[in-house]
Amino acid sequence: MQHHVRPEGSPPTNGYSHAVSFAGPMVMVSGQVPLDAEGRLVGYDNCEEQTRQVFRNLENALAAAGSTMGDVVKLTVFLTTMADLDAFRSVRDEFVDRERPPAGAGQWAGPPGVPG
After folding, report:
1. Does domain 2-107 sit in CATH 3.30.1330.40?
2. In whole angstroms, what is the distance from residue 77 CA to residue 35 CA?
3. How far is CA 51 from CA 28, 30, 45, 91, 112, in A?
4. Does Hydrolase appear among the keywords (predicted)?
């Protein structure tokens, strides 16, 4: 069971909750990338296709642990450019219910020495 919170006096949000409380087993999922089951990159240079693959991978990992996207209590997102934030959000909304978990997003350029 989850309870999403927007505390009184908190600013409005853009697609996330300020806090969420939950009870039950906890499942930790590692960071996901836009690779398919054979390890091939999906959606080269296409944020929407890559985001859909990441969420498919999340759903698969959660299902293997007996969970669903509806049980997620926190999302942390790294994009290679913040210009993709709106595209990410539109795809995220295909996979995450209206009561969205708390979330954070930031830009990640990749490991040192690896071309972008």
Report:
1. yes
2. 16
3. 19, 15, 11, 7, 23
4. yes
Helix (H, G, I), strand (E, B) or coil at 95: helix
- pLDDT 10s digits, 4-13: 667 788 787 7
- Looking at the DSSP bridge assignments, the partners of residue 3 are 21
| Cβ atoms of 56 and 29 closer than 8 Å | no
Residue 32 burial by Cβ neighbours in a 10 Å radius (0-12, 13-18, 19+): middle
From the list 114, 112, 55, 45, the residue with the least C-alpha distance to 81 is: 45
> How many other C-beta atoms are found inside a 10 Å radius of the C-beta of residue 91?
19
pTM of the model: 0.81
Return the structure tokens found at 22.
């939950």
49-65: pLDDT as tens digits: 999 999 999 999 999 99
